[in-house]
Automatic annotation (TrEMBL):
Coiled-coil portions: none
Molecular function terms, GO-annotated: NAD+ poly-ADP-ribosyltransferase activity; tRNA 2'-phosphotransferase activity
Record-given protein name: Probable RNA 2'-phosphotransferase
Keyword set, alphabetical order: NAD, Transferase
Root EC class: transferase
InterPro entries: Ptrans_KptA/Tpt1, RNA_2'-PTrans_C, RNA_2'-PTrans_KptA, RNA_2'-PTrans_N
A Pfam family this chain is assigned to: PTS_2-RNA
Residue ranges of the TM segments: none
Upper taxonomic lineage: Bacteria, Bacillati, Actinomycetota, Actinomycetes, Streptosporangiales
Record EC number: 2.7.1.-
Task of the protein: Removes the 2'-phosphate from RNA via an intermediate in which the phosphate is ADP-ribosylated by NAD followed by a presumed transesterification to release the RNA and generate ADP-ribose 1''-2''-cyclic phosphate (APPR>P). May function as an ADP-ribosylase.
Family, as annotated: Belongs to the KptA/TPT1 family.
Naturally occurring in which organism (per UniProt): Nonomuraea phyllanthi
Length: 180
């Protein structure tokens, strides 16, 4: 499959597995899963056929491992705006994590910290390089350092998704270091 098709399929999956499953008649279970055959049927019925081989290739080759397939079901690993419980256990984070953003959001982040916005959790990266790529999707990246170890010690709960993205409810400004 060519790169253009790969991106189109991945974006289609993100839209319907994270944000708007009802648009194509899907119903996610409580943990965000839907049978693969239902997804493929719904996509075809709504004018965007995906072959099982294409689906497998997108899931297996996605550098961010955005999707998981298990027991004939598929789900997005995180980033949902629809109600789901990913049933991720609490986990102890490393001492620091990173968050990639762009300059136009820094003033608000300094005042309010990192908020989940329309998602369930704030997404944090395990390394600076990943955070730089995440921030770079919207412009010139700004990488914030999160004192996740201190947050955890102070009672904040963290989870880690299957693809290594760290999730938490909110990062208060006092736990953030901003670049000079």
């Amino acid at each position: 499959m060519d790169e253009r098709r790969m991106v189109r399929v991945s974006k289609y999956l993100a839209r319907h597995l994270r944000h708007d499953p009802g648009r194509i008649g899907l119903t996610l279970d409580a943990h965000g899963w839907v049978p693969v055959d239902e997804l493929l049927r719904a996509a075809a019925e709504h004018g965007f056929p995906i072959t099982p081989a294409e689906l497998r290739e997108v899931v297996e080759s996605n550098d961010k491992r955005r999707y998981a397939i298990e027991d004939g079901r598929i789900r997005a690993s995180q980033g949902h705006s629809v109600p789901v419980d990913l049933a991720l256990p609490a986990a102890e984070p490393p001492e620091v994590l990173y968050h990639g953003t762009v300059g136009r959001f820094v003033t608000a982040i300094r005042a309010e910290g990192l908020r989940p916005m329309n998602r369930h959790h704030v997404h944090l990266s395990p390394d600076r390089a990943t955070a730089t790529r995440v921030g770079g999707r919207r412009g010139v990246p700004v990488v914030l350092v999160v004192a996740s170890g201190a947050m955890h010690a102070d009672g904040h709960v963290f989870h880690v998704s299957a693809n290594g993205v760290w999730l938490t409810g909110h990062v208060p400004p006092s736990y953030l270091r901003f670049p000079s």
